Amino acid sequence: MRCPFCGNEDTKVQDSRQVEEGTAVRRRRECERCLRRFTTFEKFEDSPLIVVKKEGRRESFSRSKMMAGMLRACEKRPISIEEIENAAFAIEKVLRNRQEREVTSSEVGEAVLEQLFKMDEVAYIRFASVYRQFQDIQRFMEELNELVVKRRTLTK
């Protein structure tokens, strides 16, 4: 594996562990020249999952793009990167286990909202405000009220 910092091809594995329910391997590596550490992932390559956007455009599903949105929503919240990775994996697993190879962007967004709701209400509202494109404070308040009702029904 080539070092992403200096380009050296001699790196050694410091630690390996299975992630994503054993479907991938995460390796911590160290460059033997510059001594910097970095992480690599080995993953089974599956058939592509296509996301159909609102305007009809199609693009390949990108877990990293989905995670970037989740990370922004979870910024400065008490949520570990591992929790976010696990949630992203769970979403991707559900999407890939469906019979269809295409999924709408709204299905992805709703799946993210579902996972964020379980993790952190503030992250949920942050993501919802961007995803649902609140136009005014009234729509924001409606979403907050829906969140309160949803939480009450779950705690009963």
From TrEMBL:
Residue spans annotated as Zn fingers (unnamed) read 3-34
The record's GO molecular-function terms, alphabetically, read: ATP binding; DNA binding; zinc ion binding
What GO biological process, any one, is recorded here? negative regulation of DNA-templated transcription
What Pfam families does its record include? ATP-cone, Zn_ribbon_NrdR
In this protein, which residues make up the domain named ATP-cone? Answer: 49-139
Cofactor(s) needed, names only, are: Zn(2+)
Could you tell me the keywords of this UniProt record? ATP-binding, DNA-binding, Metal-binding, Nucleotide-binding, Repressor, Transcription, Transcription regulation, Zinc, Zinc-finger
The record's remark on the cofactor is: Binds 1 zinc ion.
The job of this chain, per UniProt, is described as: Negatively regulates transcription of bacterial ribonucleotide reductase nrd genes and operons by binding to NrdR-boxes.
**Record's NCBIfam families?**
transcriptional regulator NrdR (TIGR00244)
PANTHER family, per database record: TRANSCRIPTIONAL REPRESSOR NRDR
Give the family from UniProt. Answer: Belongs to the NrdR family.
Please identify the protein, giving its name as recorded.
Answer: Transcriptional repressor NrdR
